[in-house]
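Board notes, transcribed. Complex of a protein with zinc ion.
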Amino acid sequence: MKHKTVQIHKLYKIENDKIIRLRKLCPKCGSFLGEHKNRRYCGKCHYLEFKTQ
Ligand SMILES: [Zn+2]
């Protein structure tokens, strides 16, 4: 059985020795927000944020 690898590389990017978060964190609980076309959604506390253009 293969061991699972956490796909952290999708959430972070290292550039010039700096860790850049690719995804926004939930202001309420600190979880990563799910990216959608026109909104961001937290699956943990159900926080919803609309993207402004
Ligand atoms: Zn949340």
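The mean pLDDT is 84. Residues 24-53 form one domain.
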